[in-house]
Amino acid sequence: MRIPISGFIIQSGDDESLHSHRLYITSWNGYPRQNHVHPMSGVTSIDDGHSHQYASWTSPAPTGVPHVHGYNMMTYVSQGHTHLIQGTTGPAIAMPGGGHYHVFQGFTTINGSNPHSHGYNGRTGNEVSTM
User: Fold this and answer.
1) What per-residue confidence (pLDDT) applies to 1?
2) InterPro entries from the entry (predicted)?
3) Rounded CA gap, 88 and 104, in Å?
4) Which of 7, 80, 104, 117 is the most exposed place for a label (fewest CB within 10 A)?
5) What's the pLDDT at 113?
6) Cα angle at 16 between 81 and 24, to 5 degrees?
7) How far, in Å, CA of 60 to CA of 110, rounded?
8) Cα 13 to the chain's mean position, in Å?
């Protein structure tokens, strides 16, 4: 079975070792797809005697089809440093009143005067249309 799709690809990362692409689908089976994002925020685990807060938005993804979202953000400063949080959410989980959310988890980059990382996990907020 073939389903016609259209969209665009964006190169992300300037460093050759971090070179990647993101695909954004704009139509699925001949029908336009509205994109959406999700808010996400939380507090990392306590490591090296402190934690970090974080808050941002997921990358856009098409509405109405199975999907995941990428995310990429910096934590707030704590103990004089920040950490990078990046990854991909899990698949969409329907909410009883409509809409959906995604779960996410991972570890930050290793930073700080005493090099360490933090764990993080949570669930996004409900979808917000980008159109």
Assistant:
1) 74
2) YmaF
3) 7
4) 80
5) 93
6) 90
7) 27
8) 16
In angstroms, the CA 14 to CA 67 distance is: 26
The answer to whether 40 touches 58, Cβ cutoff 8 Å, is yes
Is-contact 125 100, C-beta < 8 A? no
Checking if the pLDDT of 47 tops 80, the result is yes
Q: Do 119 and 43 contact (CB within 8 A), yes or no?
A: no
Do residues 6 and 26 lie in contact, with contact meaning Cβ atoms separated by under 8 Å? yes
What's the rounded mean pLDDT across residues 113-117? 95
103-107 and 128-129 as β-strands: parallel, antiparallel, unpaired? unpaired
pLDDT of residue 121 exceeding 80, the answer is: yes
DSSP per position, 43-92: E---BTTB--EEEEEPPPEETTSS---EEEEEPPPBTTB--EEEEE----
In terms of Cα–Cα distance, which of 81, 87, 86, 89 is closest to 51? 81
Global pTM?
Answer: 0.75
